[in-house]
Amino acid sequence: MSVTISIEPAIAERPVAPTVSYPYSQWYAAAFSDEVTRTPMARTLLDQRIVLYRTEAGDPAALVDRCPHRRAPLSQGALVGDQIECPFHGMLFGPDGTCSRIPCQDVIPPAAHIRSYPAVDRHGHIWLWFGAPADAAPDLIPDLHWLTDPSLTPVKGMMLIKANYLTVLDNLLDDTHLPFVHRNSIGTPKMVSAPIDVQAGNDWVGFSRWTLDTPPSAVHARAGGFTTNVDRWFNVRFVKPSTVTIDVGSAPVGTGAPEGDRSKGIGLFSNGTLTPGAGNTTWYFWHNARNFALGDEELSRALHTDMVNTFLEDSVIVEAVQEVVDGDNDLIPQVNIAGDVVS
């Protein structure tokens, strides 16, 4: 059987109609690197149903998760070499979205080709570009090199939060909620009144806050074995479109941390990378890498539990806020306070 292939880029790259608008010309985290295998997986990102898999060479591939024939989800299909087979009628699609086979006919119409997304495996994540493919420069991917730094010991996780990604992002950029939402985990009372230093660059904004001579948070006390007051640093940076990096740690008072010597303390390098899901939901990829007790699996399990519990505390309040926002018909303006200086 001969096959005639006709490719029409305007059709092959056409976007799926979204329900809301997002900044599309950006790289978004779609999954952790170890999630994407030779078994196709489905994920809804920016209101678009996407199927993810790896080619035989190990490269990530991302296609719209919908056969153009009868809209069957390709994620339920099987891989045939580097191509994915529709589970309904056997049409084959390559990593670039090209339809190469329709079993019941020879001619392949242009509308049979589907959208593919530029995909890059970097820093332990699979990143997808949602804008024009020609603009997908990998150098624009946020620099999160410490996530795969062999000199650090990591823990990581992911959760789906039932709130708009901007609501979750606002929460990440606001450390004044820590003494209240996280009073039993990572918050300390003095944080809310500690001086804040705001910085900004071309594509980022951030702040630094030192809380001196303060009781350690519950998590830092357990991780660092602190029994006396500490000097705590908290450095936060937002990188577009939706990544927040956090350099946080504690050291015993008087050991020189504010002057630059953190060697007597513990340091945690964290990030929260947010990707809009379906409607007002957010995929929250979190990662925490430490520079102490390297390779200690028991501590890693304990820190993982602490981080999950901390983010569950966040999810409770941001989901409650989203519920109020969704049902708020009074259009009462929000009041900004000093703690909102970054967000």
Q: Give the biggest beta sheet.
A: 7 strands, antiparallel
Q: Which fold name corresponds to the CATH topology of the largest domain?
A: Naphthalene 1,2-dioxygenase Alpha Subunit, Chain A, domain 1
Task: Name the helix and strand elements from N-terminus to C-terminus, one letter apiece.
Answer: EHEEEEEEEEEEEEHHEEHEEEEH
CATH architecture label name of the largest domain: Alpha-Beta Complex
Q: Name the strands of the widest sheet in spatial order.
A: 13-19-18-17-16-15-14
Number of strands: 19
**Number of helices, counting only DSSP H or I runs of 4 residues or more:** 5
User: Could you name the ranges where pLDDT drops below 50 across 5 or more consecutive residues?
Assistant: 1-18
Percent of residues in helices: 10-25%
Envelope shape:
elongated
What does the model show?
With 343 residues, the chain is an alpha+beta fold. It folds into two domains: 4-140, Rieske [2Fe-2S] iron-sulphur domain (Rieske Iron-sulfur Protein), CATH 2.102.10; 145-329, Alpha-Beta Complex (Naphthalene 1,2-dioxygenase Alpha Subunit, Chain A, domain 1), CATH 3.90.380. The chain contains five helices and 19 strands. It has a seven-stranded antiparallel sheet with strand order 13-19-18-17-16-15-14. Strands 6-7-8-9 form a four-stranded antiparallel sheet, with no helix packed on it. The protein has a three-stranded antiparallel sheet with strand order 2-12-11, with no helix packed on it. Strand 6 and strand 7 form a beta hairpin. Residues 1-18 have low confidence and may be disordered.
